[in-house]
Structure formats: C-alpha cells, structure tokens
Specification:
mainly beta; two-stranded antiparallel sheet; 1 helix; globular
Length: 127
C-alpha cells in the first residue's frame, strides 16, 4: 500500500509491505533482522519492506534469513518515525496489538538501566 512515512521530519513515500522499527537486533527472539541496532545509541533502526504479493514476501523472507536484506530495502536510523492515518494499518509491539495507525515511534533515552559485569562485552551496547 502506498504510504507516506515521516522520518525525522522528512516525508518518505513507500509501497509499504512491512515495517520494523527496532532498538535491539532480534525479532521475536529468533531472527536477527536489525543486526546494526545498538540499544544505547538513542536511535531506532528502521527497516521498510516494500512491494506486494507472495513473491515479494518470500524474497524478503529469504533475504532476511541470509542477512542480505539491507541493500534490498529502505534502512534508516531515526529518532522519530511518524506513521500516517491513511491508509490505516494495524501496529504491534513485540507481537502484541497496539492498535491502528496513526502512531509516532520514538525512544525515551536513559529510561532503562542495564547492569552488566565489567568483563562482559555485548554487541548491543556502544561502550
């Protein structure tokens, strides 16, 4: 469906099939879709999968499975993503229904404290 997103104040027209805004790398605890995401950088990693139909969906799925999806879709890092009211579509957060668009997606920086052992390094954090 033809949709206009607003990414950090910039309108972007897309043929939206699926949109993922992530702050961590794993989708559903299983698939590493947002492999560039950092939990502490203050940005959402946005992946916009475009195009309609079963062929396009299968192609996207295979690209994600083999981690070749970055060049085949719109990828941005953003502070704020605005989803339009029209056309309306259902939104989810971690698989739970959130309701229908319009929605604004943004992070609330410094609201979660994570404690790790000093010797433990994680690819999810910058420091």
């Amino acid at each position: 469906r033809k949709t206009e997103l607003v990414i950090d104040g910039e309108p972007v027209a897309v043929d939206l099939s699926w949109l993922l805004a992530a702050n961590t790398r794993s989708y559903g605890g299983v698939i590493n879709v947002a492999h560039h995401a950092l939990a502490d950088d203050g940005l959402l990693d946005l992946y916009v999968f475009e195009g309609q139909g079963i062929r396009r969906s299968l192609a996207h799925g295979l690209r994600v499975l083999f981690r070749r999806h970055d060049s085949a879709l719109l990828y941005r890092r953003a502070q704020r993503i605005e989803l339009p009211a029209s056309p309306s579509f259902e939104a989810q957060v971690d698989g739970d229904p959130l309701g229908f668009a319009p929605r604004v997606l943004q992070l609330a920086p410094h609201t979660l404290t994570v404690i790790l052992p000093r010797e433990k390094k994680s690819p999810l954090f910058t420091g």
